[in-house]
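Treating backbone geometry as a discrete language has practical consequences that deserve illustration. In the encoding step, the backbone of a single protein was reduced to a row of integers, each denoting a local shape. The amino acid sequence and the backbone structure tokens for this protein are reproduced below.
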Amino acid sequence: MAEVARRQSIPGSYFIQHYEDWSAPKEFIDATWKLPLKKIVIAPWLRDHMVSLGESCDLIPNGIDSEEFPPGPGTVERTVDVCAMISDVPWKRADLVVQVLNGLAAKDPEFRAVTFGTCERPALLNSQVEHLQNPSKDQIRNSYQSARIYLCASDAEGWHLPPAEAMSSGCAVVSTDIGGVRAYADGTALFSPVGDGGALMSSIERLLDDPALCASLAAKGMAAMRENTPVKAASKFQGAVLRSF
């Protein structure tokens, strides 16, 4: 892209949504970030890495559509304790999601959870947990709106959409401490060390045992998602690209 822009004597833009070091060596990824292009990143942790390379960029977070992900009932009225996404992408840690949900189900026969994703139901997932394979948008939306808590167990994310969608829908969020969730949920979610299933489980239990805290975090998260609409994000993106010309 940089070469095409140079040959045509036009500016080019590089939209960066993750640090994709699973696809190429870090040295190669960093070299692409130094190309003579206008860089746009979606999360503060990506901006920080860009700055560490001596490069500048525009930070434009994603916007969540509150009409597509409207709030459900208050957390105390919800019938499902936890919802989570299941993925076969290794760093999204389906194994850790299963570990946490199974641990909670083993402690409480009334525990209810729902998982969703394109992959099949994990073989070891407790029968108290419902799994939706290839769910429709309505099923995903209903999962968010019926759950008190959204669980993210990922090792890394660029700017992770499902917890943000869940926040917009009125869930409290429990997550591993990764930049792709801190980007928008700092101060509105409970964070645990990456890979620590026990800490994630404790955070969920804390919210289930403290309905007022759960409701407070859910309300703060929902308000935060209303601050950055898709229209605002699109306008900022357009402005950043046009400044290149």
User: Anything to note?
Assistant: Residues 211-227 form the longest helix (17 residues).
